[in-house]
Amino acid sequence: MITLYGHAYSNNARKVHWALEELAIPYVYKTINLMVGEQKTSEFRRINPLGRVPAIQDGEVTMFESNAILCYLEERYGKGKLLPETSVARAETYEWLWWQASDLARPMLEPFLSKLYASMGIAPFDDLRHKALVAASNAPLDALEAHLKGRDYVAGGLFTIADIAIAESVGLADGSGIGLGGRPHIKTWFGRMSERPAFVATRAKT
Predict the structure, then answer these.
(1) Structural domains in the chain (count)
(2) What is this structure's pTM?
(3) Average pLDDT over residues 36-46
(4) Which residues pair with 58 in a beta bridge?
(5) Do the beta carbons of residue 202 and residue 14 sit within 8 Å?
(6) What is the pLDDT of residues 150-183, one digit of tens each?
(7) Whole-angstrom distance, CA of residue 203 vs CA of residue 54
(8) Reduced to 3 states, what is the DSSP secondary structure of residue 52?
(9) H-only helix segments in 120-157
(10) Same domain, yes or no, for 68 and 92?
(11) Is 80:71 a contact under the CB 8 Å cutoff?
């Protein structure tokens, strides 16, 4: 059985959690308490030497990096459920998966952390800095908005691991102070993603 090490605040851990539910893979969810630095302990670093979540253990296989884990779960257990069959459509899925990591992830996460740390008293809230962080999200969100016009899914014409990865970044928008009101295609797509039973199940369990 797979063990997923994660935390409810980690959108990267939520990607993996969501994929496990979509694929109906038996798993155990083990919360790593990020608030007290459990991810930096020597015990956890034996699982992920980078000291962050998510990580998984699947028998003798130990993995970290959320998008790599998504690929592993699909290729080992999904066998086409979360990836298209044709090489072109698969390449498009990987293209948008890498785009999420390179272009979308940080601009969505940084304003979220800015507000979260202030709410926890970890750092003072800097309104000017936060506005600059929010503005940095415009370019990738505008690109996604244009791409989703006329599409139900991000890539390959079906629900894939790219939808999971991108939706978990987009899901930070409200907590980040990033409005989606002027991006109707993203808003409609994300609404559809968040209604999936596997998505709902992950929120109920964390």
Answers:
(1) 2
(2) 0.95
(3) 93
(4) 61
(5) yes
(6) 999 999 999 999 999 999 999 999 999 998 989 9
(7) 16
(8) coil
(9) 127-135, 138-148
(10) no
(11) no
